[in-house]
Amino acid sequence: EAQVTQNPRYLITVTGKKLTVTCSQNMNHEYMSWYRQDPGLGLRQIYYSMNVEVTDKGDVPEGYKVSRKEKRNFPLILESPSPNQTSLYFCASSSRGWTPNEKLFFGSGTQLSVL
Amino acid sequence: AQSVTQLDSQVPVFEEAPVELRCNYSSSVSVYLFWYVQYPNQGLQLLLKYLSGSTLVKGINGFEAEFNKSQTSFHLRKPSVHISDTAEYFCAVRRYNNNDMRFGAGTRLTVKP
User: Fold this and answer.
1) Is the per-residue pLDDT at A102 higher than 80?
2) What percent of chain B clears pLDDT 70, i.e. is strictly above it?
3) Residue A21 · residue A110 · CB < 8 Å
């Protein structure tokens, strides 16, 4: 089954403790992206990647890192999480990010709480 | 940069009634327009999209949207809603040949029996 898998589904952590949210897709997609969803703000793009070893900043990259060493994986890293990073995070992928006929496939989300 | 405004944060409606979810956008260049739906505890799914051509776009689950360039709007409609349509709906816009997809704040549609 074609899917985007995020882990963990829920995560509670404390300020300053490094964490990684994993994202993996099994569709051989070149394009992957991370969003955060906050009430009243919709989805905001954090980082995206057009292909292996190619990453770019989205709207709200501060406090986040990403890497794209393999095509299927696109982990989101919070080196020193802060409470304002408490949010619902979504990973998404598509076969070509710039082609309008492609659609984004979304993961089920990771609810992160930073205390 | 482009931006999206969804005019209603919540829309309650009774089953079998018609519904319209409003979306306005702004951009200095041509854009593609999308509607996504998010069911509880799930990721987003594409409902429909406007790329070019006919301004009336039909999507899944009986939804349709109309692109109005002069009013910079892309409102989503359904003539008769079901309980199962209860979800959050996001309007999104993306510039041509650009990965920068901007989402609106979302509209929570609640269908009551």
Assistant:
1) no
2) 96
3) yes
